[in-house]
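Fig. S4 source data, part A: sequence.
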Amino acid sequence: MAIQRGERFPVAFEHAFPKGLVLIGDVEASTEYQSQEDRNRGREAKQRVDERSGKRIWKAVATDPDEGRAKRASFEIQFIADVQPVPPGDEVLPGMRPIALDGLHVEPHVTGQGEYKSLAFRVWATGFADPKAASRSRSQSGQGSQGKEQAA
């Protein structure tokens, strides 16, 4: 099969997140594992680099207001960019702002242990889009929250 482990699939933001997303906190560098010995010696952690593009990896936490299960509502987004992505717009509550994603890709993977395994998705993006423009395109297409499939 031509599809290999770790394959990322492009998805339209409006399809994956019909009600948009809420960024919680800030975007920060995603660092490689650092042993306790290295930390004790004062060695600085290295930022992870995407193997495919050679660009730096950044991370942020987001919440999907369309997700009904609390356990799956918040997740980490990984950004692939040379410079740290900056979210547009103002905070609606301290540390929270509505966002839309540019260059959205998802990577399926199995999560859980034993009989409690399930399918989940890692979320990758190249940056932020204007959340107001994304909400306008959702309302013009009449999509709303219809058409979103939930994974197992």
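Fig. S4 source data, part B ends here. Residues 100 and 131 are 5 Å apart (CA to CA).
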